[in-house]
Specification:
disordered N terminus, four-stranded antiparallel beta sheet, two-stranded antiparallel sheet, alpha+beta, disordered C terminus, 16 helices, globular
Amino acid sequence: MKHGCRTLAWPSNQPVETLSDEALAELNARFAASDAAAGIEIGEAFEPFNQMNDMFTRAFWDDDVRSKDTDAFFDSYRSASSPRRAEGFTQKDFALRNASWIVSNLLSNRNNDDGEREGFQAPIRYDTPVAETKVTVDDPHEQASEIKSLARMFGADLVGVTEIDPRWHYSARVDTRNFSPVANDLPEGLTHVIVMGHAMDEDLVATYPSALAGAATGMEYSHEAAIVIQLAAYIRNLGYEAVPSMNDTALVIPYAVKAGLGEYGRNQMVITPEFGPRVRFSKIFTSLPLASDAPKPFGIRAYCDICTKCADACPPKALPFGPPQEDNDSTSTIKGVKKWSADCEKCFGYWAKLKSDCAICMRVCPFNQSKSTLYGRLFHAVATSKFRKVALYLETKRGMAARLKPGQWWLRLRGGMTGTLSDRQRLDR
């Protein structure tokens, strides 16, 4: 991406491809059962999301979003030369964050001249040709099991499979040369999506809000970039199409929920039983015959219905307190889906002031706590049962999740003590 220069605003009347009413009705009917199982409610106002309207893209073309703060936010990922004195925002903290992103950035920026920011605003290009001969797949269930094992071998922490669903694909992607919408095309014949979850470092997440904590995000983007390319190359060598993808091409949250990896929470994240919301997701679109997983109601969404801890802790008050709603005022939120929706402008405005991602809502989520402790195991068991109000009572008494001071994180690092934190090791509650 180019920084520090003005771009022309995207003309709102420029046409983009969208699903016809007939195609949408057919998809709604086809996926009605799995939508219900996943807790997805689609209304009459639904329309596929245009990636031109995501907050990170709007920060380059929309004068209502772009500011000196947002420009400085993006520039800070290239250089740690403007740190703050606050703990967690020193030059060393920014340096570690930026280093964690470097592999992902090398991949994403390699085709800037073509307007493709791979993995974010364009699909990831691949050099592996599809083999002329297809390996025969007799049992899609067996093949899915094998693919999941290989994904974990390459480094994924969670893996699920679901069917391709065009409703979640961007109606347009972004040409980053002039920030204009372009066709969001995929090869013909794709049938399934392999969704992978990548757990973020618990110690680093415990330091949010800080630039230091941003290293947890960058590390997983760098890790997943390698993982999706490797697994896609394997599938293409089997003779089947495979398109590796990170944040590009389609919304990953509905795919992750449909693949049975977690449930959508009040904090706008997929909350998983294994890692809570502390997960990044990647995906591979493929024609390889695979058995699909089913959405799994773990009981997490039901707990979010009665818990507002993330909304209580949000500094810019960008998270909702009430029940899921279909209507929302943010351009950066998909239309026609009944769900919890953030005030994206407030959220990103706060990020820009920090010059780093915030994710306090991730840190304080009760499901983020480790099952390695007795209390953690007790909470997870009770919160996902019909006795969830008991878990809410315990969490209310317990207060907000502890924040690890960034300086303490560095001390632990120097002492070779990085690893999973216990509650008693976390400071500054």
